Structures are given as structure tokens and as C-alpha cells.
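Re: the request from the purification team.
They wanted to know what the chain is likely to look like in 3D before they choose a buffer screen. I agreed to run a prediction and write the result into the notebook, where they can find it.
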Amino acid sequence: MAKVTTLAGEIFEPELPGRLLRIAEEIRNAGGRAFLVGGWVRDALLGRNCRDYDVEVYDIGQEELLPILKKYGKTNLVGKAFGVIHLAMKGESLDFSFPRTESKVGYGHRGFIVETNAKLSFKEAAYRRDFTINAMGMELPDLTLCDPYNGIEDLKAGVLRHVGAAFVEDSLRILRGVQFASRFQLTLAPETIELCRTLSLSDLSIERLFEEFKKWLLKPGKPSLGLRAFLEIGLDQYFPEIKPLDGSWENLGRILDNVAEQRVDRCFGGICLELTEDQISEIAFAALLCGNVFVDMFPVAGEDAASMKPAFVNIPEVTKVAQKFLGRITSEVHLMRNVPKLLSGLANLDYDSVPMDSDMRWDAVDQGGLKSLCVLLRAIPAELLASTRSAILGTTPNKPTTDFAEKYIQSAARLDLLEKAPEPFLTGKMLIDLGVKPGKQMGELIKESFELQLDEVLETVDDAIEWVREKINRQ
């Protein structure tokens, strides 16, 4: 079994398909060399398994490689221009490619001329890669490290550094820097920051942007370090909808990290919350945008803009800003619908005391259940929110309720509001049985009775039925 010495000096035996090792032996016997490249190498040095096996083949051509691969499974030439051969085997799939050079000739990420050349050296081929930590290779079958740009030293030092001038040919690498900083807890090299600042994201599709944001916010890591890279590059100018919380980017970073931690620990006071992938994504993006919620500044009437005072947050404006940002990076409907709802839910709370049961029920109707809001609340330090809200009100703050989120969660659980909103006591069938004909009146009765139900005026189904009878008799 091939072994790797990790950065920590430990011996690690990474998961490798036996067939891949046999293929590498055959490639070597045919006069070629096979290297695992990219993320697999980086992860192995960190002592992590990775099942994305990208193999670059040197010193033999496609005509020699294809007969070898066909012995092991079905081959498919995925990108003729890129020389990528996909090998599908039972239970596994592998990608084999040839070393190549890329030349920027047009606009966007498709504006490249790609030339494969099996005679390139590993160093020449690795020059087209983005960061030094991704420009390493391990030659199969022995996993001998090839590191022409000192990626291992950067990985040890926790530094994310671009390989060379070709970095500027794909502007997506700016956001890749952000998500790598988060996932691997790295800081950007000063020269890489300066280079990133010269690039624009305007040529990128929303699909490509969204993938990098998801990796930043949703893959395991420390999102606050991604935020630091985001700010160092100056992306807050390109995405002005992302704002500091109460004037502090550090506060926003704390919240992003707390949300990431809660994807692992979802139990609060004995209550464990199961989240769908959509809900996890909604909470993460709401956290990224929550700086828009708590302080909104407006000039005092009759005075100039210099006399700005805190005012209640403009919830419609928060919704508009969130939708604008999401519309720039994604077409996923659930995010466009639910992230603004979560932000509105945050803005509606005062944080000095847990809402009354009736208010909790109304919140649940707005949110479609309070589970996601509870998780987001727990990520935001209650003392920070209490002091911020007091500043908005212009009052001296009471001692903040430091366990506000836990109390809110307990109340939501007690009222059975975590998973879903309350259902109306009255149904159309009940009203028909009471003599109400289908139509506008029926809808109005259900709506009015539901509002009374949420306000605890009507506490049972029998109360609602009696209320309807009285209402009909008065007409």
C-alpha cells in the first residue's frame, strides 16, 4: 500500500483504487509517467482522503493510453480539446488527461486556446494551475511528490500564493482564493492580494460564482478566514450587499464561523434539529447578509445628512438588498424566497426578551416553521444583538439576555413550531357543515379565525366553531 508523509510528520495510507495502481504500472511499462494532481495531493498531505482522482499522463500519447484504459472499463473522451479521457469502472470513475498549455484569446472562461503536449515537463504543465498548493503532483504508483513551486512550504506556512502570471487568465480564481482560505485556513500572500485586485468578476456566469460561494460557506472550514480574504481583495466593493454587522467585519466573521460549527452540532438544550441541505444553504447565506439587518441609518427630518441617527431597520429594503445579491449569484428559487424571510425574522425581534406565544406563532407562519431561524439566532451572540437593538431604539440597554437563542428555541419547541407553522382550526369542510357556502365569505372566515387563533383569542377547534356560529347568527 502506497504511503504519504503528512505535514504533521505522520504516515498516512490514502485510499487508492487498486486498479489505478495497476494502470499506473502499465503506463510506466509503456514508457509513460502518471501523476495524481490537484486537490488529491493537497488533501493527502493534510492526512485527508479524497475520492477525486485526477491523473495527468506524461511521455505517451492518446494512442498508447487508450488501449491500456480499455482493459479496465469504458472510456469516454470527455473534452477533445482538453485531452481528457473519462474511465468508468464498476463503483469508480477516473479522469486521465495530458499535460497542456492554455492561452487566453477571448472574453470569459471559454476564451482559451488549449494545446496538449505529452512531452511537457511537470513544472511546465503545473504553471497553468492557480495556487502553489494545487500545483503539486504525486507520481504513481509510489506517490513520489513533485512540487516545482514550493506548494508544500506554502501549505505548511498557511499561505495561499498564486503560481504565476497565468493566474490572471481566469478571474474565477479570485473567489477560489476566498473559498480555499476558508476551507484550509490560509491567508493570502501579499502579492496574490495585489494581483487579485486587478481582476474583475464581470465576465463570470452566475453558476460559476455560486459554486465558489457555496464552497466558501458550506464546505468544512473557517469562513471568517474566507471573509478576510474577501475583504483584502476588495470584493466588498463588488458585492456591496455584504455588510459588516454593527460596523464590525469581525462580528460578521464570528457569525459565519458559528453557523459552520452548527452544521456539526445541531443540539441545543436537549433539542436536536435535523436540517435539509436547502435549509443549511439558506441559513449560511442569511448569515452572510445579516449585516443589513440590525442598524440602518437615516438623516433626521429637517437636518442634513451629517446628523445621522439610528432608526428601525427598513425590512422591505433588507429584503430588496438580499434579493438583489442572490439574483447576482444564483437562480435557486428556495434561496430567493427563504433567505429574505430569515433576515426579516431577525429584524422583527428585540432580543431583550423572548416573544409572547402569539408572536411566536405569527413568526412561524411568516417563516414556515422556526427551525432555521432558531439555528441562525444561535449563531449570533445575543449580547451583541441586545446592545445593537438598544442603539437602534436610542435607549439605555437592559442587561442582555445572553441565552436568548436557547430560550427562543425552547419556546418554539414547546409550541410545536420548529418544523411547521400552525394549521388553521377551521377548514372549508367544517364551514360547509355549518351552512357556509363556498366563496369569498368562506375564505374571509378562515382568515379571520386563523388570526384570532394565532393571537390566542381562539384556543381550540370548538372555540373556532362557536365563533363561526355566533358570527353567522349575527348576520
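For the purification team: The longest strand covers residues 74-79.
Please add any questions underneath this entry.
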